[in-house]
Request: fold
Amino acid sequence: MIARDLDAVIADLLTRHPAVGLLGPRQAGKTTLALALCENRPSLYLDMESPDDRAKLAEPTEFLSRHEDKLVVLDEVQRVPGLFAALRGVIDRGRRKGRGNGRFLLLGSASLDLLQQSSESLAGRIIYSELGPLHVGETGPETADRLWVRGGFPPSFLAKNDAASLEWRRAFIRTYLERDIPQLGPRVPTETLRRFWTMLAHEQGGCINAAKLAAALGVSGQTVGRYLDLLCDLLLVRRLAPWAVNTGKRLVRSPKVYVRDSGLVHALLGLGTVDDLLGHPVAGMSWEGWALESLLAVAPAGSEAFFYRTGAGAEVDLVLELKPGRRWVFEFKRSKAPVLARGFHEACKDLAPEKKFLVFPGAEGFPMGNGVEAMGLPAAMELVRQA
Reply:
């Protein structure tokens, strides 16, 4: 088992809150983390995709009251929307008996249903954390290339070879399209959504032209927006908002879109090995997206992420607002001899960041002048983590 950064975080949150919601895409490792926590305390694990476990909660208040001395783990809890009202009552009764915190750990692989339901029923009783795929801080710097090519889903990263890893990711994509997404509600044509997801992989890190994608898919612009919302809610795609600041300049207002796991980008494009990837035009943007997700995975709670681009070409890949007034900027270059464009320095004049970094695949950092520090991804992640 690969130790996850969130192990200690979730354990700490359970000491301070009645319920903790752990969100993340399927196969990211939520259940493994939860079961590891259960080893050290009285606990009960229920999988809401199991008919037998769902049957136990036919009378949820009565059943859960019998286990008020245990940590109850409810996996895929968004499958049972009526459960949240019962949890509210159980938590409130437990508080009156002095059993306030560490009662429930709720695991969900989609944010849209889970957040809507729990925000109505468990306000003030739950706190959320997100577990994404593995990042290089968890697997070690020596695994960086393998992690980039295969992505961070543990079964893909730990596969015996690249072919087995690619096979797993293709099956993962198919399962999402044919089984998981149809369970969420409105019927979405599987093949159309697959084509859309593949188009996003081709446009990795770009500002999406909804009208162009709609014409290619033969659907409306509103439908493209609905597909994008769905993939974002499933935590499979990130929509990075533009930095909005009054600089008197014409700013790009469209968000940038990234398929969040680099391994899924490569599977959607049929790229199974590092040689395949390095010969493809997406290589640079794939590495940028992978590095960006790695930094955001270790960013302090409450941090906000943006990009900045003007119509004249001034641009920064990532603006990380650690807290109001504390702003770091990052540029990503998949080159061992990186060079900063003039547009980065122009953007920094507008943003006035506290720190400026260029992140590249090298092992040793060095100053680049104008207050910019060049460093490898693991070193940049450690600085962000300590922030």
Summary: The chain has a mean pLDDT of 90.
